Amino acid sequence: MKRESRNAKGARVVGLGSAAPEGVMTNFDLEKMVETSDEWIRARTGIRERRIADEKTATSDLSYLAARKAMEAAGVSARELDGIIVATATPDMLFPATACLLQDRLGARNVAAFDLEAGCSGFIYGMAIGDGMIAAGLGETILVVGADTLSKVTDWDDRGTCVLLADGAGAIVLKPSNGPSGILSTHLASDGSLGPLLCQPAGGSRRPATTETVQEGLHYLKMKGNEVFKYAVRAMEDSTNRALKMAGLESKDVDLLVPHQANYRIIEATAKRVGVPMERVCTNIDRYGNTSAASIPLALDEALKAGRVGEGDIIAMVAFGAGFTWGAAIVRW
Ligand code: ACO
Questions:
Q1: According to the UniProt record, where is the region ACP-binding (predicted)?
Q2: Distance between CA atoms of 9 and 5, rounded to whole angstroms?
Q3: Is residue 327 part of a domain?
Q4: Closest ligand 1 atom to the C-alpha of 120?
């Protein structure tokens, strides 16, 4: 995943957009559903409220809204797209791919479209693959979406997970870089032996959906949160440092760190270990919770709109999620 230097072959981000459902669920709403408190949730996770999709809204609907905004920002029409990658762990259905549903809805033609499943790290994975497609000459204009509706696989009786999970989508348009700005480096990693710590046990080919699997609640997201926590911080630190090194940069060069928004304490610990002060860290977990593959583009879009990102800025993005997967990307804006 290393390119020795910026060259004409790599990609740059030419448009960014995001979308979240209108429905807001506060910690006080959750207090009425499970044995928890606003105080516990805020202290342990940093979350105050999150957006939850209604019954009619699926991952492709949020993907579409985010994609339209990113394409508008980029000044790119659907006809110009060469590839659509949707990173998601909560596709509309197992197949066809959510990327194909999006391709149809956008009206894109003659375009490669596929889903990518890397849990909460999906957006970083998607960006790396999109960058690679452009470098390999497989296309000039690639749409990368990170989108999840985790609420659809949430067990609303499980206080260890339901207070964290939320819905959203973010999208970028990539084009060949013809100057200093672009994706400088990406680092991707995984460790499948840790998969059982964060998984959706049934509904796939190992345990197809049956009345029993539904009755046992095996279609819900299951997580051993405190074990995930420990691993997440170490992995995100390592990945950020590796990606920085590949780009020939150090933590002092980072203008903005955009970490996956899983838990404020994970973000704080990662930033501290990497050596980036919190004033240069992007967080919106207080208002959005954990939106999985959407969290990085959602946070970055907010930072961009708030004027926190300027041309030439070095942005470090890092994520960790189910698989386990993790990864980082260094971008010169
Ligand atoms: N309200 C009140 N008490 C709670 C709640 C809650 N919502 N949830 C758990 N508790 C209790 C536990 O039962 C436990 O009680 P006990 O001591 O009596 O047994 C106590 O709080 C401590 O539980 P821990 O799990 O040790 O709490 P921790 O400080 O680790 O916080 C949390 C839990 C928030 C889940 C944290 O571990 C976390 O954020 N983990 C990482 C999650 C993550 O990053 N996931 C990856 C991304 S998700 C994806 O990829 C789709």
A1: 261-265
A2: 10
A3: yes
A4: 50
Q: Which of 241, 263, 284, 290 is catalytic?
A: 290
The whole-angstrom separation of Cα 195 and Cα 205 is 16
Q: Is the CB of 263 within 6 Å of ligand 1? A: yes
What is the CA 18 to chain-centroid distance, rounded?
11
189 and 327 housed in the same domain: yes
Whether 78 and 171 share a structural domain: yes
**Together in a domain, 238 and 149:** no
pLDDT in tens, 128-170: 999 999 999 999 999 999 999 999 999 999 999 999 999 999 9
Total number of domains in the chain: 2
Q: Domain range spanning residue 190? A: 183-201+211-332
Residues paired with residue 326 on neighbouring β-strands, in sequence order: 189, 320
Outline where 183-288 has alpha helix (H). 211-215, 225-246, 264-274, 285-288
Please work out whether the CB of residue 30 comes within 6 Å of at least one atom of ligand 1: no
pTM higher than 0.85 = yes
